[in-house]
Amino acid sequence: MQPFTRIQGIAAPLLRDDVDTDSIIRVERLFNAVPRADLGLYCLESLRRLPDGSADPSFFQNDPRYDGATILLAGRNFGCGSAREGAVWAIAGMGIRCVIAPTIADLFAANCFQNGILALTLPAEVVAGLAAAVAFDPPNRQLVVDLARNELGLAGGPQLGFAVSRRRREALLDGLDEIDLTLRQQARIAEFGDSDRVRRPWIYSVEPDAP
C-alpha cells in the first residue's frame, strides 16, 4: 500500500450530505468485470448529470479546473449505506488520497484507511471554508495535508491541526493495512503460541481418527 505522509493537490468540493456508496459506485459496475483500476471512471457517475441527462456544470467532475484532484471536500455522513469496499476503490481510482468531511460513515472510513486514503473529519464550517478558499482558483490554491505533522491548509498559508487515531496514523505513514500490522507482531504471536502449548497442551493435541 502506498504510504501517506504529505500531499499537496487540488481539492474538489462535494458538499452534499448523505452521499452513499450506491452513489459513489453503482453496484453493477462491481459485478460487470470492471477492473479495479478502472472504477474511477465510473465514480459518482449518478451525480454528474441533471435530471434531463445533460452534464451538471456545477458538479466538480464537469469542471476542468478540478481535473487531477487528490483531495475531496465532502458533506456530512459521506460514504453511508453499505460496507461496499468498491466505493473506496472507485474514490481511489479517481485519484483521491484524502477525504475531508464533517462526518464519514464508519465502515467507509475504515475501508479508506485499509486502502491508503486518509479519512478526516472536521467541523462543517471548516470544510465549507476550505472549499470556499480553493474555489476561486483550484489549480493554484491547493491544499496541503501533512499527516506527519497532523496539519492541513492552503499551500503557503496558515495550517490547521487535525486528529487521527495513533494506530491508523502509523499504518498510513508506513503504508500498512490491518494484515500488515498483524504480521508485524509475528514474533510476539509465535512467543505466545510456544508458551500456550506448554500451559495448555491439550488444546493442541490431535486425537487419532476413530476406526
TrEMBL record:
Tell me which residues make up the Aconitase A/isopropylmalate dehydratase small subunit swivel domain.
Answer: 1-124
Q: SUPFAM superfamilies from the entry?
A: LeuD/IlvD-like (SSF52016)
Which terms under GO biological process does the entry name? L-leucine biosynthetic process
Enzyme class, broadest EC rank: lyase
UniProt catalytic activity: (2R,3S)-3-isopropylmalate = (2S)-2-isopropylmalate
Could you list this entry's UniProt keywords, alphabetically sorted.
Answer: Amino-acid biosynthesis, Branched-chain amino acid biosynthesis, Leucine biosynthesis, Lyase
Nucleotide-binding listed as a keyword: no
Which branch of life, at top level? Answer: Bacteria
The UniProt record lists the EC number as 4.2.1.33
Q: Name one GO molecular function term.
A: 3-isopropylmalate dehydratase activity
Q: Which residues form a coiled coil?
A: none
Pathway listed: Amino-acid biosynthesis; L-leucine biosynthesis; L-leucine from 3-methyl-2-oxobutanoate: step 2/4
Choose one Gene Ontology CC annotation of this protein and give it.
3-isopropylmalate dehydratase complex
Subunit note: Heterodimer of LeuC and LeuD.
Classification via NCBIfam families: leuD, PRK01641.1
Function according to Swiss-Prot or TrEMBL: Catalyzes the isomerization between 2-isopropylmalate and 3-isopropylmalate, via the formation of 2-isopropylmaleate.
What is stated as this protein's family in its record? Belongs to the LeuD family. LeuD type 1 subfamily.
Protein name listed in UniProt? 3-isopropylmalate dehydratase
The scientific name of the source species is: Rhodopseudomonas palustris
Lineage, broadest ranks: Bacteria, Pseudomonadati, Pseudomonadota, Alphaproteobacteria, Hyphomicrobiales
